[in-house]
Amino acid sequence: MKIISLCLFAIIAFGVPAFAAHHDEYPVSTPPFSEGIFPCSNCHAGMEVNAKRRELKDEHTNIKLHHAENERWCLDCHNPANRDKLKLANGDTIPFTESYLLCGQCHGNIYRDWKVGIHGKRVGYFKGGKRVYFLCVNCHNPHDPKFKPLKPEPPPTRPERTHGR
Ligand code: HEC
Ligand code: HEC
Ligand code: HEC
Ligand code: HEC
Questions:
Q1: Number of domains the chain is built from
Q2: Could you report the per-residue pLDDT of 77-88, keeping only the tens digit for each?
Q3: How far apart are alpha carbons 108 and 101 in whole angstroms?
Q4: Which of 3, 45, 58, 88 has the most beta carbons within 10 angstroms of its beta carbon?
Q5: Which atom of ligand 2 is nearest to the CA of 75?
Q6: Is 60 close to ligand 1, i.e. is its CB under 6 Å away?
Q7: What is the pLDDT of residue 125?
Q8: Which one-letter DSSP state was computed for residue 123?
Q9: Which atom of ligand 2 is closest in space to residue 78's alpha carbon?
Q10: Is the distance from the beta carbon of residue 140 to the nearest atom of ligand 4 less than 6 Å?
């Protein structure tokens, strides 16, 4: 696991887990990307950044922003310089596995509830006895997050994960 190897690296290199003081990290489910979309840099590395608010015509035409869209646009959440990362309001970049930090900036109460398991969902992961948190985006579309009761039960399950329950 990446977090574990990073952690080991930090312990070996610095004697202490370097991220411990950095910010909260939780074991989470896989970000629910569409097939083939990640890494974003496959296309975006070398592509010019177009920060203009506009209707996208050449790509991502399925994304219709409906999330406080009058106050913000794509690059308030996506990092223009490296599209494989998200961007917080303070300019820090975070991986997609920590998108809850992005959401938590504005939905602080829900984020607190999520951390303690009141909002959202956690499942025991018996191999290694770890708990896994579902990301906010496993249940809410970040571009149009209002919960749609007609959607099928989130999150998408994969066989290897169902077995861990
Ligand atoms: C509120 C923050 C936010 C805004 C605003 C936002 N995004 Fe996203 N976007 C996210 C997050 C978080 C994810 C990651 C979802 C996941 O983990 O699978 C994402 C995922 C994506 C993906 C991958 C989608 C897929 O099919 O897997 C694309 C492409 C994308 N965003 C493009 C855009 C574009 C273009 C805009 C503007 C029209 C935009 N985003 C606006 C937060 C945002
Ligand atoms: C297949 C190539 C491709 C992939 C993969 C891709 N993009 Fe894009 N993206 C584009 C193109 C082309 C545009 C410009 C579309 C337009 O202007 O109509 C764009 C535009 C955007 C924009 C609007 C801002 C800008 O710079 O134009 C955002 C935000 C964005 N992409 C995010 C993402 C994210 C996040 C991912 C990965 C989760 C991703 N893209 C993956 C091709 C891609
Ligand atoms: C910059 C502040 C900001 C960020 C970051 C943000 N949101 Fe929101 N969100 C809002 C605002 C403001 C609204 C209410 C307006 C609207 O629904 O368009 C909202 C609405 C919502 C709703 C609908 C609430 C309802 O009434 O049903 C959900 C769910 C939600 N956000 C989830 C998320 C998730 C998940 C993320 C992270 C991917 C996120 N938000 C990131 C500001 C934010
Ligand atoms: C397991 C699925 C799941 C996860 C994970 C999840 N949510 Fe929700 N969320 C829901 C459902 C279902 C509702 C609708 C509840 C209702 O209508 O009573 C909801 C409602 C909301 C609302 C609107 C309700 C309100 O009280 O204003 C916001 C905002 C929100 N979620 C944000 C988040 C954020 C931020 C995260 C991550 C920190 C998150 N959610 C994680 C399923 C989830």
A1: 1
A2: 999 999 999 999
A3: 9
A4: 88
A5: 29
A6: yes
A7: 59
A8: E
A9: 29
A10: yes
